[in-house]
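Q: What structure does this chain adopt?
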Amino acid sequence: MHYIISFPEGHIDAGRIITGSSNFTQAGLVDNLEFNVELKNRADYEFAKTKFEELWKDADYLQNLAKQAQVHDYEKQIDQLVYQLYGLTEEEIKIVENS
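A:
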């Protein structure tokens, strides 16, 4: 799950990124083992917004395996950031990734 929230021009902040592992799996719906984080840093917001806009402009994303691999790489990077922010142990990370 990834949300990009943009604030109106003139707002003190540019926006927010909410990202995490929430989804419609047993872990999310039954076991409640989902992790989400709100990123408030302007650089994080700008990075995510730019990447999203680049992908959105590429109409061939669904047929382009290289682009899909790049998105997968970004998702792994985001996952690692979330794990660090929550201070998860290797055991907890395995639980999250296997759910």
